[in-house]
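[worker-b] picked up task from shared queue
[worker-b] task type: protein-ligand structure
[worker-b] ligand name resolved to adenosine-5'-triphosphate; SMILES cross-checked against name lookup, match
[worker-b] sequence length check passed
[worker-b] input payload:
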Amino acid sequence: MSVEKLKILVVDDDLFFRKMLPKKLSSKGFIFDTAENGVEALEKLHANPDVELIISDMAMPEMNGLELIKKIRSTGKDVPFIFLTASDQLNTAIEAMTCGASDYLLKDENILRTLSISVDKVLEKHQLKKSNQKLLQDLAAKNKDLEKSNKQLLKLNELKNKFLGMAAHDLRSPLASIRGLSEFLLSEIFGYLTEEQKEYINIINKTSDEMLTLVNDLLDVSVIESGNLDIKPLKTSLISLIKDRIKLYRMSAEKKDTRINFIPEDIPEIFFDPSKIAQVIDNLVSNSVKFSPPGSAIYIHADVDKAMVKVSIRDEGPGISEEEQSRLFGEFQRLSARPTAGEKSTGLGLAIVKKIIDAHHGILEVNSRLGVGSTFSFKLPISND
Ligand SMILES: Nc1ncnc2c1ncn2[C@@H]1O[C@H](COP(=O)(O)OP(=O)(O)OP(=O)(O)O)[C@@H](O)[C@H]1O
Ligand SMILES: [Mg+2]
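[worker-b] inference finished, payload out:
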């Protein structure tokens, strides 16, 4: 530690100490000032506020050491103190320690040696305290900066969602028109089509349908992220909903020779938003069809688990590694498993599923082993109201 040019104030009514102490400590390169009592010490301190250490006698005329430290501490100044005291002043010295003195030393025959050690110790401790304070100040300033950047990021995220929502919303109608008009043409109301024309219009129809799904997903994400996901719960049958939704996937599953097995069980009607939970079932069932190899089986199961209804969708697909499971519910996560028959994959489905289940105060779980298959389950609370 560098102790060069530090200012020390020596306060003592005894001229011997005022002369002797600076002389004995001069080899350490300090600058000294002296005062005869507390009153003079305060004046010196006022003129020289950068004093780094006060070495003071305890018993002095006009203002003693204890009064001096109390006065200085009352101004909030944190300069360290070392008291030199006679044996009959020990109690006062101990009281001075409670006022924040750093050390007290007995004025005996060893005083000059012990003082030299004490000065080094006290200054080192004080420097440490100052650098700690500086670190804390820096940390507080950095925290403030972080808070500011966080606020800016939140604002930007809000703006992104707004933009995403607006763009998706404005793309929806023209895309729906393209899809509708292509269906119209395919119905051959306006005249017969050649095989080649039919093939191209079919592509237009399929592509616009996929784009519409993507745009709807984007709109969902922006609505959910802006905190406006509006759940409209109804007390109804989850089993009927599962049956209805499975019908939609039977055809695409059959094309891949995939069997969807669902044996309905008797579960109570519960409160949930049918259109939102339909989205959840759609994505989980379509995923298990999409990522499983042809010829495999999918098992759907619904039962009561404690105070919740639990729906599980198990497949015999490629499975998902633990590392990828941790990323599964983020947006735009297309992981190692790829569609096995050229189906579309945006990586938004599970992010939406997670948010819908959260909004229902439910639980979404995945259980998966590479090379064996995956089970996605969601649980919804059975509430009595
Ligand atoms: N049952 C599953 N088996 C294996 N991997 C899966 C399964 N379900 C999801 N995944 C992996 O997780 C990724 C994210 O799934 P998610 O449903 O979010 O998106 P997606 O199906 O690719 O696209 P989208 O649902 O938006 O049409 C998938 O791309 C796939 O790699
Ligand atoms: Mg999906």
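[worker-b] attaching auto-annotations
[worker-b] The first helix runs from residue 15 to 25.
[worker-b] releasing lock
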